């Protein structure tokens, strides 16, 4: 157990309370990456990055032995309790691997692991390409009637993109007055497998179609000239869980099995009860609170 003073959670609560008074959406001056970076500084613990878990084995005394891999080398970690924030598909792979040879001390967890893996694999995931760009213009080149948080396009429309976020409109103080930031999200498989240059062109074509931004001439529909300062393309594979019909029933059954058969395992992350950053924070706080209450007795 790790004790910090002041508590990172209490500081986060205070920050969130202040932010809610200003806007329903929030970010940080240097982006959302500040959140995990700052947590890594505050929490005094061993943090292993790029160290994927491979399997779990229950050992004597109902303790976990976590098999992982770090820098292509095997790693073994011992734990009284494991909190998994892995995506559902990734945790399913770990549990599938754990089902073989996990019967130490006369206990057989094969059926339990397989049942959990089946429920986890029933949660489908969407891959998404994210295209970010920074534009320089004397003033915002977007049509006034279109400015806001952004827009989403229903898949039934058959459009090339999922939608666009207008960071400069949502967070006007996060960049200079002459900078306009936009993020375009693309989910069509036909585009995701193509080179980044192709994905960037898809994003530019969508912005011209929806917002009148012509990247060839550098003119917007409202007559404001703009130039591209930077662009970035990242393809996130299997990144957004899809809560399909029957999701709550499957997830509730999963939690029942874990509670009754694997009490040394807790589930967090965005696969179960909310996909946003706010949801994952809420879920993580709930998991930790439950453990603290359990360990009191």
What attributes does this structure have?
297 residues; oxygen-dependent protoporphyrinogen oxidase activity; alpha+beta; 10 strands; Polyamine Oxidase, Chain A, domain 2; Amine oxidase domain-containing protein; FAD/NAD(P)-binding domain; FAD/NAD-bd_sf; single chain; 3 domains; 35% helix; three-stranded antiparallel sheet; five-stranded antiparallel sheet; disordered N terminus
Structure in words:
19% of the residues are buried. The protein has 297 residues and is α+β, with helices and mostly antiparallel strands. It has a 5-stranded antiparallel sheet with strand order 6-7-8-5-9. A 3-stranded antiparallel sheet has the order 1-2-3. It has a two-stranded parallel ribbon with strand order 4-10. The two termini are 15 Å apart. The model is unreliable at 1-5 (pLDDT under 50). It is elongated and about 70 Å long. It has 9 helices and 10 strands. The longest helix is centred in the last third of the chain and has 20 residues, at 277-296. The protein folds into 3 domains: 1-46, no CATH class; 48-124 and 243-296, FAD/NAD(P)-binding domain, CATH 3.50.50.60; 125-241, Polyamine Oxidase, Chain A, domain 2, CATH 3.90.660. Pfam families: Amino_oxidase (PF01593). Residues 29-281 form the Amine oxidase domain. One of its GO terms (biological process) is heme biosynthetic process.
């Amino acid at each position: 157990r790790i004790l910090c003073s002041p508590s990172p959670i209490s500081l986060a609560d205070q920050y969130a309370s202040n932010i809610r008074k200003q806007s329903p959406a929030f970010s940080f001056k240097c982006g959302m990456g500040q959140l995990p970076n700052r947590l890594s500084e505050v929490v005094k613990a061993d943090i292993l990055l790029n160290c994927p878990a491979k399997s779990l084995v229950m050992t004597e005394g109902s303790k976990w032995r976590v098999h992982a891999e770090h820098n292509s080398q095997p790693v073994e970690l011992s734990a009284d309790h494991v909190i998994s924030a892995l995506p559902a598909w990734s945790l399913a792979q770990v549990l599938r691997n754990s089902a073989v040879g996990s019967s130490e001390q006369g206990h057989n967890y094969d059926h339990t692991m397989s049942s959990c893996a089946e429920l986890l694999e029933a949660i489908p995931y969407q891959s998404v390409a994210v295209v970010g760009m920074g534009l320089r213009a004397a003033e915002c080149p977007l049509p006034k009637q279109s400015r806001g948080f952004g827009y989403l396009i229903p898949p039934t429309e058959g459009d090339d993109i999922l939608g666009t976020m207008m960071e400069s409109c949502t967070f006007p103080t996060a960049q200079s007055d002459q900078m306009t930031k936009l993020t375009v999200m693309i989910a069509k498989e036909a585009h995701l497998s193509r080179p980044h240059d192709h994905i960037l062109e898809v994003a530019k074509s969508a912005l011209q179609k929806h917002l009148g931004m012509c990247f060839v001439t550098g003119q917007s529909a409202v007559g404001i000239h703009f130039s591209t300062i930077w662009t970035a393309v990242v393809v996130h594979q299997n990144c957004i869980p899809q809560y399909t019909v029957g999701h709550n029933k499957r997830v509730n059954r999963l939690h029942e099995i874990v509670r009754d058969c694997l009490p040394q395992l807790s589930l967090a992350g965005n696969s179960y009860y909310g996909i946003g950053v706010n949801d994952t924070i809420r879920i993580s706080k709930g998991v930790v609170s439950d453990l603290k209450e359990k360990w009191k007795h």
